[in-house]
Automatic annotation (TrEMBL):
UniProt cross-references to SMART domains, sorted A to Z: HATPase_c
CDD domains per UniProt: HATPase (cd00075)
Name under which the protein is recorded: histidine kinase
Entry keyword set: ATP-binding, Kinase, Membrane, Nucleotide-binding, Transferase, Transmembrane, Transmembrane helix, Two-component regulatory system
Keyword Membrane: yes
Length: 447
């Protein structure tokens, strides 16, 4: 509609100019004074009118582009005055401004929303221009963690904390890395990861920094509380009868010394009491040694070993334990060339532990059987499985099965499966357990 109105008005003015020029040409050719003067006057008026018509619309468009250039979208163009085509043009300008303002408002709302979220998270985040060092954005958590005031350029950090500057801004951390930052009067353990991204022609670096000092301290404190609780319980269980028995023996001896009886003190009773104290003390020592074995494994020495060789070693090691048992131990291996990268000594320890548990679980079962197998899972992950048809594990204790010192056996130390889990974690793998009561148990070692 705007285009048609503009085209009509332009056509009228062009025709008027052609008529004026025709009259001027007639006056020149026929030497007609009135025609010459009238044609000249009309031509000037037509040219001026056409010029004003065209230039006014160009000025309106230029005015709109100027406001766009300076991002002034608050301007409102009059829609009720002037020619129809300019009114329509102003409506179009106002619609564009309104749309851009709506988009800008939505973008601002999203930015504020995202900013609030990033301010609330307990993770430091900073983005800056790689070339100029100008900070695009940094949240309060980063400033609080590093004890910095708000800064505009990373050169601020370079001048005040060169070591932190080198670690944060000069070192590239492609993967999440644990580092220790030297603060003014303390050291701070943090996790750092960063990435570089492009925006228009500029490169920016985004750094994410998480303070893990408090988390480590809190977890360590909780671990100590649990450990002390378990150890106190176990130690008290051993010390209480020792103390009680020692007090009884001491009382009997003291009474015998103070008031000698005709009959002598029974040495057999003393010997029996001391023997009980000795056994309890040995049990306490065994507990201490058992706990120490939890901390014994700190690293692994991986070598490439065929599953068939590993199974042969386990089979030889388990023969003495199975001599007087009716349990059938079966090794299954579909691919004889299947190999693993692992610490053979530690994994043998894990498998022996699991097989011994399976032997205990199959006690009293008809045709007890334990199957040890190895294969690749659907994710091409190497796995070794130990399955039995024993009594299974009750659902109510499944969550406690890997807790140190937890055991359902009368003579169990409660560290076997905990040690297995620790060894698998050191291998970068994990241990999974599936069990149904009275149906058997399947333990999977995933590498």
């Amino acid at each position: 509609m705007t285009y048609k109105s503009y085209l009509f008005a332009l056509t009228v003015r062009v025709l008027g100019l052609l008529i004026a020029l025709t009259l001027l040409a007639f006056g020149i050719v026929w030497f007609h004074t009135y025609a010459l003067l009238g044609g000249t006057l009309l031509s000037v008026i037509a040219v001026y009118n056409l010029y004003r018509f065209v230039i006014k619309r160009f000025l309106e468009v230029d005015d709109f582009f100027e406001s766009v250039k300076y991002r002034d979208f608050s301007r409102w163009f009059v829609e009720t005055k002037g020619p129809q085509d300019i009114r329509q043009l102003h409506k179009g300008f106002n619609l564009v401004n309104k749309t851009i303002k709506a988009i800008d408002s939505e973008r601002q709302a999203q930015f504020v929303y995202l900013q609030k979220i990033l301010e609330m998270v307990n993770i430091g985040i900073i983005a800056y221009n790689v070339e100029s060092g100008d900070v695009l954005w940094a949240n309060d958590s980063l400033l609080k963690t590093l004890d910095f005031p708000s800064f505009k350029n990373i050169s601020f950090v370079e001048k005040r904390r060169p070591k932190i500057y080198d670690e944060l801004f000069e070192t590239y951390h492609s993967n999440t890395t644990s580092v220790t930052l030297e603060m003014r009067q303390e050291t701070l353990k943090v996790l750092i990861s960063d990435t570089v991204f492009e925006m228009a022609e500029d490169s920016f670096k985004l750094i994410v920094l998480q303070n893990i000092e408090e988390t480590l301290n809190r977890n360590e404190s909780e671990a100590w509380k649990k450990l002390l609780s378990v150890m106190t319980h176990e130690i008290m269980n051993s010390i209480a009868p020792i103390t009680s028995l020692a007090e009884t023996l001491q009382k009997n001896i003291q009474e015998s010394m103070e008031q000698p009886h005709p009959e002598t003190l029974e040495l057999e009773d003393i010997n029996a009491g001391l023997n009980s104290i000795k056994k309890r003390s040995e049990g306490l020592m065994k507990f201490a040694k058992t706990y120490r074995s939890l901390n014994k494994v700190t690293h692994v020495n991986k070598t490439k070993i065929k599953a068939s060789v590993l199974f042969d070693n386990i089979n030889e090691l388990m023969k003495p334990s199975l001599e007087n048992k009716e349990v059938t131990l079966v090794f299954k291996l579909d691919d004889p060339n299947l190999s693993f990268e692992l610490d053979a000594y530690l994994i043998e320890q894990v498998l022996i532990n699991l097989i011994l548990n399976a032997i205990d679980a199959t006690e009293g079962i008809r045709q007890p059987q334990i199957i040890v197998s190895a294969d690749l899972s659907h994710k091409a992950t190497g796995q070794i499985k130990v399955a039995d048809n024993g009594s299974g594990i009750p659902a109510e204790i499944m969550d406690s099965i890997f807790v140190p010192f937890f055991s359902t056996k009368k003579t169990g130390s409660g560290i076997g499966l905990s040690l297995c889990k620790q060894i698998m974690l050191l291998h970068g793998g994990k241990i999974q357990l599936q069990s149904s009561e009275n149906q058997g148990t399947l333990v999977s070692l995933l590498f």
